[in-house]
Amino acid sequence: MTLPDWVPVREDLRAFEPYGAPQLDVPVLLNVNENPYGPSKATADDLAESVREIASDLNRYPDREAWALRTDLAAYLGVADPAGVWAANGSNELMQQILQAFGGPGRTAVSFTPTYSMYPEYARNTHTRWVTGRRAEDFTFDLDEALRLIAAEQPDVVLLASPNNPTGESLTLESVRAVCEAAPGLVVLDEAYAEFRRASTPSALEVLAEYPRLVVTRTMSKAFAFAGGRVGYLAADPAIVDALRIVRLPYHLSAVTQAVARAALRHVEESLARVDELRATRDETAGWLRAQGLDVVDSDANFVLFGTFDDRHAVWQGLLDRGVLIRETGPQGWLRVSIGTPEETAAFRDALVEVLA
Ligand code: PMP
């Protein structure tokens, strides 16, 4: 895409493409880390009923504060005060709000690559100066390097994904604490894949009360099987939430979104029922990939990064030609596959064997 010269767009945006993985109509979709299991008929009926119930009030604006939904999310997270919970249209929107309120011109945000490729885009959109540090050679979080960069840059925002996308590594609580103690501004722990962690890996929620400038974001898009509903949420000190309320657009969460998200939360046990199975499939997939002689990064999420390939695009294309869409993302030579149903994962394995033959 090239914007014609007459389009008076910001010059710093002119050269960019809209972000996003290819949305292709193929049988096996293992590219955007969705939960492969949709809602049961009973849950889908309840979701539809929740929309029917509010349909006759759609002439009215929704609750600007999304208070009932935040109350339900607080209960799910075990957070006592819903004033310390905030929600938006996906954690993408949350992050953008965070950088609108805490980043911006003259301010700096840092993260550590390889990590979620949307972060620099939030920074660009909000005119926040973006600085990337590096993870270690094996992609693990390098605490010394992080502390060095934080000391040098004094960032207004530190963004850390845990489990990290695309590598799958979770941060230890020691690392979270050390970053919170060193960082002068906001520390955002993006826990989009939190539910897929191993039991031994703690959530940063455990130390939230100790660090008033710590924000923990979550999403209903992954384990919750609700990517189409577009709901991300966070827990933080209520005063941090108040700062986000200044930049949010009025009525940013539609009445439909709020109603459907609350209905989905009523069925949380069903949505999360497959998480154990997905975790087991993830570990099996990692083991299988290793047995093929490939390098694999240990993952706490619902995807696995594997490689390395001289021409990863050819491998990606070969899989696509066999009806399996994965993601060409992350460091050069690596590919990321989301964990699907056993049938989808088997289709991926069969296709990969053929491609690598
Ligand atoms: N954070 C991370 C680390 C992600 O991988 C994703 C989705 N790929 C998101 C945030 C955004 O998810 P959503 O906007 O659907 O909540």
TrEMBL record:
Q: Kindly tell me the pathway this chain contributes to.
A: Amino-acid biosynthesis; L-histidine biosynthesis; L-histidine from 5-phospho-alpha-D-ribose 1-diphosphate: step 7/9
Q: Look up the EC number in the record and give it.
A: 2.6.1.9
Domain Aminotransferase class I/classII large spans what residues?
Answer: 28-351
Q: Name one GO molecular function term.
A: pyridoxal phosphate binding
Which of the seven top EC classes does this enzyme belong to? transferase
* Alphabetized Pfam families for the sequence: Aminotran_1_2
Modified positions (N6-(pyridoxal phosphate)lysine) in chain numbering: K222
List, separated by semicolons, the cofactors it needs.
pyridoxal 5'-phosphate
Q: Which GO terms describe its biological process?
A: L-histidine biosynthetic process
Q: Per the record's keyword annotation, is Transferase included, yes or no?
A: yes
Keyword Transferase among record annotations: yes
Write the record's keywords in alphabetical order, separated by commas.
Amino-acid biosynthesis, Aminotransferase, Histidine biosynthesis, Pyridoxal phosphate, Transferase
Enzymatic reactions: L-histidinol phosphate + 2-oxoglutarate = 3-(imidazol-4-yl)-2-oxopropyl phosphate + L-glutamate
Q: What is said about its interaction partners and assembly? A: Homodimer.
HAMAP family, sorted? HisC_aminotrans_2 (MF_01023)
State the similarity comment: Belongs to the class-II pyridoxal-phosphate-dependent aminotransferase family. Histidinol-phosphate aminotransferase subfamily.
What is the protein name stated in its UniProt record? Histidinol-phosphate aminotransferase
* UniProt source species: Mumia flava
